[in-house]
Automatic annotation (TrEMBL):
Species of provenance: Polaribacter glomeratus
Signal peptide coordinates: none
Pfam families in the cross-refs: DAGK_prokar (PF01219)
Listed name of the protein: Diacylglycerol kinase
Transmembrane segments: 33-50, 57-77, 97-119
Length: 126
């Protein structure tokens, strides 16, 4: 929340503090984020193993970021939905289903990118 006594710089620093607080909450408490960080680690190991190019590293990090951002957005929407309406409601169900679609989009795109990067390299092994 905005503090009216804050100047511009102090306001920005306060926002940054809250942003890192959210980041810390996500990486320490959210199982879906932890799972995606684990997959990111596996992808990084694969990247070194197959010696992927600089462009492929960039694409890989972009889709890892996309998936993590999507999971974070899904988490925030779920938290808000549970707070606004903890009881069963068909609209809350719809909101949560749509929110769950966000990381699904990102995951499907990341699978396609992974296919482009790794399939040719894996096929060369046989
Ligand atoms: N309050 C509610 N009202 C109606 N349907 C709900 C409600 N809460 C959850 N649901 C339904 O159950 C599904 C799963 O909800 P939940 O909150 O458990 O999400 P999740 O993806 O399993 O959560 P998490 O990411 O924490 O594992 C939702 O997508 C929705 O269809």
């Amino acid at each position: 929340m905005k503090n009216p006594n804050d100047g511009y710089l102090r306001g920005r620093l306060r926002s940054l503090k809250y942003a890192f607080k959210g980041f810390y909450i996500l990486i320490t408490t959210e199982d879906s984020i932890k799972a995606q960080l684990f997959f990111a680690l596996i992808a990084t190991i694969l990247g070194f193993y197959f010696n992927i190019s600089d462009t492929e590293w960039c694409l890989q990090f972009i889709v890892i970021g996309l998936v993590l951002v999507a999971e974070a957005a899904n988490t925030a929407i779920e938290e808000l939905a549970d707070f606004v309406h903890p009881e069963y409601h068909i609209k809350i169900g719809l909101v949560k289903d749509i929110a769950a679609g966000i990381p699904t989009f990102a995951a499907l795109i990341s699978l396609i990118v992974a296919g482009f990067i790794y399939l040719p390299k894996i096929l060369l092994l046989f």
